[in-house]
Structures are given as structure tokens and as C-alpha cells.
């Protein structure tokens, strides 16, 4: 039986990749499937939370008791997240936001040119860093990091530079972890300096483990409610 320990809480989850258009037929994206974020949204709703899911393009069915907002670009995800952030007790940013977007979007299909084509890219806003800067006293902020190397160093850096409470890191080169996989192998870094390495498990189970830890943090922040 799922514990009803999130009743009364509002949870904002982001999931999936973003898609950055280049011209009417092309875009820049990444390999995120959205499975981890959808599992988090589903499990939080099962535990009684009100859940808002802001999702980039995925092939997944939106979880039923969840308000799902479909977005495409990082800019759209940014706007949707900022709109809901102030009312959220817990924000989990599982989306793989594209760090860059094409500087301009061509209204016509870009035609074949010389041997090399250079496409100028512009940095997207870091949504999570912005949430960290404006984090409410009672708010818990959880980020994700998908890395291919130097996982621990990047994870600890992200945790502190983005002002997070938890950072869930996975090495996407490991079999059984990361993109489009039904399982994940994560390490959970906490703001108190602790780190836990979880074994390979189903993404629903990883979601439950993450939620369990956020509930403990929320209780401590709110004086043992
Ligand atoms: O720095 P990096 O992109 O690896 O950090 C990953 C975390 O930051 C994820 O939680 C992701 O959702 C978030 N992020 C974001 N906006 C960006 C880039 C990443 O919210 N532009």
C-alpha cells in the first residue's frame, strides 16, 4: 500500500527533453525519454500530492491524476515552471533541458550549402538555477544530473551552485541507467554533504526513494510536522 504522506503538498515536476527549432523541419534535442520524471509525478500523486507535470515532448501517457502541461522549448518550460513554482512545496527538475538553442529560427528550410555549416547557438536560461535563487524558505528543490564522467565532482558543484536540497546523479554510460531505460542507478547527494548510492532499480522505485527523502526534508524544514 502506498503511504498517503504527501496529502496537502503541491509538487511540481519537469520531465523529458526540450526541443529547440532550427527551421520548420529541424530541431535540436537530446535522448531523454521522460520516464524518470513521469515516474516521479505518478508516485507523488499516488502518495496524495497535488502534482503539476511540465513535460517536454515524450511518447509517454500523461499520468491520470496529474495536471500535465506540454511544452516544447526550454523557454516555454521556463515560463510554465515559473508560473507554478511559487505554489509548489517541492520542485523536482528531472527534465533534460537543452543548454543551447539556435540563435535564430529560419522561417524557411535551410538548404544544403558548402561542406561545413556552422549554426550559432545561444545559451538557454538555467531554470533550476533561477529556482534556486528565488527558493522559498519552506521549499525543497531537487535537481538531476546526467553525466558521462566525473560524476561526483559535477554533482557536488551543481548541488551548491544551484542552491539545491538534493541532487540525483546518474552516470548515463552505465548499462541499466539513464536515457530511455526502465531502470536507473543513481546517487543522491544532499545539501548536508551526505551521499547515498542506490542499487539498480526500476524508475518507479527510484522515484519512491527520492520522494521518501524529500518528505523527510520537508518535515525537518517545517519543524517535525
Ligand atoms: O547543469 P545541468 O544541465 O547538468 O543541470 C541539470 C539540472 O538542471 C536538471 O535538474 C535540469 O532540469 C536543470 N536545468 C534547467 N535549465 C537548464 C539546464 C538544466 O533547469 N537550462
CATH architecture name: 3-Layer(aba) Sandwich
Low-confidence stretches: none
**What structural category characterises the helix and strand content?**
alpha/beta
Count of runs of 4 or more consecutive helical residues:
5
Largest sheet: 8 strands, mixed
End-to-end distance: 22 Å
Shape: globular
Question: Could you tell me the mean pLDDT?
Answer: 95
Attached small molecules: cytidine-5'-monophosphate
Query: What's the name of the CATH homologous superfamily?
Result: CoaB-like
CATH topology term: Rossmann fold
Range of strand content: 25-35%
Order of helices and strands: EEEHEEHEEEHEHEEEEEH
GO molecular function, one term: FMN binding
Region (Phosphopantothenate--cysteine ligase): 11-225
Protein name: Coenzyme A biosynthesis bifunctional protein CoaBC
Binding site for CTP: 99, 109, 125-128, 144, 158, 162
Keywords summarizing the entry:
two-stranded antiparallel ribbon; binds cytidine-5'-monophosphate; Rossmann fold; eight-stranded mixed beta sheet; 5 helices; alpha/beta; 14 strands; globular; 225 residues
Descriptive report:
With 225 residues, this protein is an alpha/beta fold. It has a single domain, classed as Rossmann fold (3-Layer(aba) Sandwich). It has five helices and 14 strands. The chain has helices at 35-46, 74-85, 127-133, 151-161, 203-221; strands at residues 10-15, 20-23, 26-28, 50-55, 67-70, 90-93, 100-102, 121-123, 140-147, 166-171, 183-184, 186-190, 195-197, 201-202. It is globular, with a radius of gyration of 18 Å. The structure holds cytidine-5'-monophosphate (C5P). GO terms for molecular function: FMN binding; metal ion binding; phosphopantothenate--cysteine ligase activity; phosphopantothenoylcysteine decarboxylase activity. Keywords: Decarboxylase, Flavoprotein, FMN, Ligase, Lyase, Magnesium, Metal-binding, Multifunctional enzyme. Its EC number is 4.1.1.36, 6.3.2.5.
Amino acid at each position: 500500500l502506498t503511504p498517503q504522506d504527501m496529502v496537502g503538498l503541491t509538487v511540481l515536476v519537469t520531465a523529458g527533453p526540450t526541443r529547440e527549432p532550427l527551421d520548420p523541419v529541424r530541431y535540436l534535442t537530446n535522448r531523454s525519454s521522460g520516464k524518470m520524471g513521469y515516474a516521479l509525478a505518478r508516485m507523488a500523486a499516488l502518495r496524495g500530492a497535488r502534482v503539476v507535470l511540465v513535460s517536454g515532448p515524450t511518447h509517454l501517457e500523461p499520468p491520470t491524476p496529474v495536471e500535465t502541461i506540454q511544452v516544447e522549448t526550454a523557454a516555454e518550460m521556463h515560463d510554465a515552471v515559473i508560473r507554478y513554482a511559487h505554489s509548489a512545496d517541492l520542485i523536482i527538475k528531472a527534465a533534460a533541458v537543452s543548454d543551447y538553442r539556435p540563435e535564430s529560427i529560419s522561417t524557411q528550410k535551410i538548404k544544403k550549402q558548402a561542406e561545413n555549416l556552422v549554426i550559432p547557438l545561444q545559451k538557454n536560461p538555467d531554470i533550476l538555477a533561477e529556482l534556486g535563487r528565488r527558493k522559498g524558505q519552506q521549499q525543497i528543490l531537487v535537481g538531476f544530473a546526467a553525466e558521462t564522467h566525473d560524476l561526483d565532482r559535477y554533482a557536488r558543484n551543481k548541488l551548491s551552485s544551484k542552491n539545491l536540497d538534493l541532487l540525483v546523479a546518474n552516470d548515463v554510460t552505465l548499462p541499466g541507467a539513464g536515457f530511455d531505460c526502465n531502470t536507473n542507478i543513481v546517487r543522491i547527494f544532499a545539501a548536508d554533504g551526505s551521499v547515498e548510492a542506490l542499487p539498480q532499480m526500476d524508475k518507479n522505485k527510484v522515484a519512491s526513494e527520492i520522494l521518501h527523502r524529500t518528505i523527510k526534508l520537508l518535515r525537518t524544514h517545517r519543524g517535525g510536522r
